[in-house]
Write a structure and sequence with these properties.
It holds the Pfam family FYVE. InterPro entries: FYVE_RUFY2, RUFY1-3, Run_dom, Run_dom_sf, RUN_RUFY2, Znf_FYVE, Znf_FYVE-rel, Znf_FYVE_PHD. Keywords: Coiled coil, Metal-binding, Nucleus, Zinc, Zinc-finger. It is a single chain. The chain has 672 residues and is mainly alpha-helical. Helices cover 66% and strands 4% of the residues. It contains 13 helices and 8 strands. Strands 1-2 form a two-stranded antiparallel ribbon. Strands 3-4 form a two-stranded antiparallel sheet. A two-stranded antiparallel sheet has the order 5-6. The longest helix has 141 residues. It is elongated.
Length: 672
């Protein structure tokens, strides 16, 4: 008798990972058959033990159930449900990855998964009494998720808003489908399992959700985050669906197994050949990169030597710049001091010149006014003299002597006028020349006062002459005596005028001496001005030298900037070389990753991704999450709508836009 067989026709059932019996199909003729359920085998089955609970129904419900006396039937049920959950989840993941696109609600493995999850959640539910009947639904514990996990409120609200759902079971089925689409079913059920005090209101103490098997199933559900599902909940009749598990999907013959193995072996060999070709190409690229690295290292050494030489030249130029700057500073300080001294001197001289000029201008204006008054008086006198001459011609004889005296007086007046004009010219020249001497101005004021007194005396004499002429007209007979007296008076006046002329000549001599003094003072001032001009020309030459030094300094700065540009360019070249080296390292790492691609990918958790990595748009029920099979990141459908074969799978798989471009670039670079 075979090992594990009995006399009553039953054979010992092999157990799965959890210790429970595995479901098998019974042949209609009662013959022995060989099956493999995803890695577990059972031979010579004459009778099958029932594994499903009686209340759930199914194919195993009508079969006779035979379990060991030592085991608890609820533990066996939990183990069977756990094994069935493992099979459904594993089959769903493998079929979805081979399917290579988003799953619809008509996909059979997905329907079987929801049926298995419904059985797992129904296990050990407490019966609640109502007015009409007894209720036993899984919608009650699923409603707790909204309180424990705030993000689940959106699913609960959307389930309640669905118009076609009338029963709690239909709502629970819709909730499971929405949680799978959100890729958060494992997170929601984990919150329920942690809060066992709240679950005890809905489940018995021996229920699957209250034991360790529930935690194992929640851990298995994390693998479903790889799957992208697009389910239409509104159009389905979730209230009237029958939850029956179809075991035909999980049972296979040895021939099918061998065929699958052959197919898998062929696929593995193809992948191996593909990887070997990749390795050859990568080895060739690595050798070429090594040669490039050697050449780049040589060029780096040359560039480093050139940089050292350039740095030494820059240091020398900087020292020269410092010296030139110090010299320029000293020259600028000296020039500034000279300029300040000259500015102070020029300002003082300008102030004195302005003061003297103002005083002289005032004196000149006053003298001009006085001369204008005198000229007007003289014109009046000349007019009166012309009238007197006409009267004297009429008085033929008596007035001849008077005319002679008048002509003499006119000559003296003309001489005086000429002297006055000369004095005016001299005064004008003196006013123009004597700008800074206050003593000379005082003397000139005294001279002008004396001249005014003399002119007043002359005007008084002229008035007397007019009176006398009038008297001569009245008394012609007494004209001779009066003429004699007048001649005497004219002689005395001429003597006085001669004395005045001598005095004026003396004054002219004094004025000439003053003019000489002023000319000498002007010459000294001109010499000082020439000295200042020479100093200014010297300062201008120094400023021109400073400008030339500045130009040289600017040229040196330009050279320094050019050297800096060369230095930056060399640094950029070194950075590019470093980038190339890093790219070669990345390629080597890509080779290693390609060699290790068959070991699996590291998937990003759904909790960590709330926005698309490329477009950064927030995920929602309408904008689903999709994993890139190359990098493991999460993207939206628009940013991951690409398919390429990878080393891990020869079939086309979903890839994000960045990985798609990178893989195409690699393939194009690897091509000869």
């Amino acid at each position: 008798m075979a090992e594990g067989s009995r006399s009553d026709g039953f054979q010992g059932a092999k157990t799965g990972p959890a210790g429970g019996p595995l479901p098998v199909r019974w042949n209609s003729r009662g013959r022995a058959m060989t099956f493999q359920v995803w890695g577990w085998r059972r031979e010579d089955a004459s009778q099958v033990l029932a594994w499903m609970p009686e209340a759930e129904g199914g194919r195993g419900a009508a079969m006779p159930r035979r379990t060991p006396a030592t085991k608890d039937p609820t533990a066996v049920e939990r183990a069977n449900l756990l094994n069935m959950a493992k099979l459904s989840i594993k089959g769903l993941i493998e079929s979805a990855l081979s399917f290579g696109r988003t799953l619809d609600s008509d996909y059979p493995p997905l329907q079987q998964f929801f049926v298995v999850m419904e059985h797992c959640l129904k296990h050990g539910l407490k019966v609640r009494k109502s007015f009409l009947s007894y209720n036993k639904t899984i919608w009650g514990p699923l409603e707790l998720v909204e309180k424990l996990y705030p993000e689940a409120e959106e699913i609960g609200a959307s389930v309640r808003d669905l118009p076609g759902l009338k029963t709690p079971l239909g709502r629970a089925r819709a909730w499971l489908r929405l949680a799978l689409m959100q890729k958060k079913m494992a997170d929601y059920l984990r919150c329920l399992i942690i809060q066992r005090d709240l679950l005890s209101e809905f489940y018995e103490y021996h229920a699957l959700m209250m034991e360790e098997e529930g935690a194992v199933i929640v851990g298995l559900l994390v693998g479903l985050n790889v799957i992208d599902a697009n389910l239409c909940v509104k159009g389905e009749d979730l209230d009237s669906q029958v939850g029956v598990i179809d075991f035909s999907m999980y049972l296979k013959n040895e021939e099918d197994i061998e065929n699958e193995r052959d197919v898998q072996i062929a696929a593995i060999l193809d992948q191996k050949n593909y990887v070997e070709e990749l390795n050859r190409q990568l080895n060739s690229t690595v050798s070429s990169l090594h040669s490039r690295v050697d050449s780049l290292e040589k060029s780096n050494t040359k560039l480093i030597e050139e940089l050292a030489i350039a740095k030494n030249n820059i240091i020398k130029l900087q020292e020269e710049n410092h010296q030139l700057r110090s010299e320029n500073k000293l020259i600028l300080m000296k020039t500034q001091q000279h300029l300040e001294v000259t500015k102070v001197d020029v300002e003082t001289e300008l102030q004195t010149y302005k003061h003297s000029r103002q005083g002289l201008d005032e004196m000149y204006n006053e003298a001009r006014r006085q001369l204008r008054d005198e000229s007007q008086l003289r014109q009046d006198v000349e007019n009166e003299l012309a009238v007197q001459v006409s009267m004297k011609h009429e008085i033929e004889l008596a007035m001849k002597l008077l005319e002679k005296d008048i002509h003499e007086k006119q000559d003296t007046l003309i001489g005086l006028r000429q002297q006055l004009e000369e004095v005016k010219a001299i005064n004008i020249e003196m006013y123009q020349k004597l700008q800074g001497s206050e003593d000379g101005l005082k003397e000139k004021n005294e001279i002008i006062a004396r001249l005014e007194e003399k002119t007043n005396k002359i005007t008084a004499a002229m008035r007397q002459l007019e009176q006398r002429l009038q008297q001569a007209e009245k008394a012609q007979m007494e004209a001779e005596d009066e003429d004699k007296k007048y001649l005497q008076e004219c002689q005395s006046k001429s003597d006085s005028l001669q004395k005045q002329i001598s005095q004026k000549e003396k004054q002219l001599v004094q004025l000439e001496t003053d003019l000489k003094i002023e000319k000498e003072w002007r010459q000294t001032l001109q010499e000082d001005l020439q000295k200042e001009k020479d100093a200014l020309s010297h300062l201008r030459n120094e400023t021109q030298q400073i400008i030339s030094l500045k130009k040289e300094f600017l040229n040196i700065q330009d050279e320094n900037q050019q050297l800096k540009k060369i230095y930056h360019e060399q640094e950029q070249a070194l950075q590019e070389l470093g980038n190339k080296l890093s790219e070669s390292k990345l390629k080597i790492e890509d080779i290693k990753e390609a060699n290790k691609a068959l070991q699996g990918l590291v998937w990003l958790k759904d909790k960590e991704a709330t926005h698309c990595k490329l477009c950064e748009k927030e995920f929602s029920l309408s904008k689903r999450k999709h994993h890139c099979r190359n990098c493991g990141e999460i993207f939206c459908n628009a940013c991951s709508d690409n398919e390429l074969p990878l080393p891990s799978s020869p079939k086309p798989v979903r890839v994000c836009d960045s990985c798609h471009a990178l893989l195409i670039q690699r393939c194009s670079s690897n091509l000869p």
